[in-house]
What does this fold into?
Amino acid sequence: MSDKFFALRSHYVASRLTRMKKKIIKIGLVQMRMSEDQNKNLLRAISFVEKAAKKGAKIICLPELYRTLYFPQQKSDKNTYAETIPGISTDAFAPLAKKYGVVIIVPIYEKTKNGHYHNSAVVIDERGRLLPTYRKIHIPHDPLFYEKNYFEGGETYRVYKTKFAQFAVLICYDQWFPEAARAVSLLGAEIIFYPTAIGRIIPRREKDNDWADAWETVMRGHGIANAVHIATVNRVGEEDRLKFWGSSFIADSFGVMLGKASNTDEEVLIREVDLNRNKVIREGWGFFHNRQPSTYRFLKKK
It folds into this structure.
């Protein structure tokens, strides 16, 4: 495509943004360092969420498995880390969501009534109500990420239609799959939240590529391809043989970085997002109305 094409496209998008009424909300990401003390992690998470709420964040997301160390590195007793829904976390955060009138995303290690175990995200609305739980669908099984020993995969993507925005939650390894981002975008998500626990192996090996750069790039790409905002929250600190790189970020629907947290320190990252920008990008670039679903049918067979 020519430079003239891109110039015209950019002019169209800029003109539409100028004319369109904005839909602004604040979102907050809680980047934490975890300890062995699950109660301490809970209390600190509560403190961070309150901080985000007092600064005006209306949707607040904690990192993956926020109450525990990243235990899938080694063999552990499942029941040491698992909790139920309702349970410890929901009992703590539901009143908080109601008190501040905010939506809170709480990722936990879930044990169901039927004895199944999932890497899950509880979404609590501004009235303190528990919305349907999202269970991580894509489960990795690699050195130091032995998640299939602990988690069963979920089966359903969800889009949460809240007072402030329509959003989806996809958990960590889900973030590498374009099909997941496309699915929730087609279901109406304006923001995709990716609670995460990802880091480098210690010591870093010479042959390792820059995982962090690829991690950021792929999610910004999902945002661009689907014209949705991306909000990714990671943990920091060293746990056994993993060093978590933090770098939680919020990007707009054309991949523009709106804010990025430290790669070493705890932080509450809060940014305003304009969700009507999604519509302008989607219309201007034709990413949805120029799709050709009839040519994608073979994907079901692969």
User: Anything to note?
Assistant: The chain has one domain: 8-286. The CA atoms of residues 183 and 189 lie 9 Å apart. The chain has a mean pLDDT of 93. The longest strand covers residues 103-111.
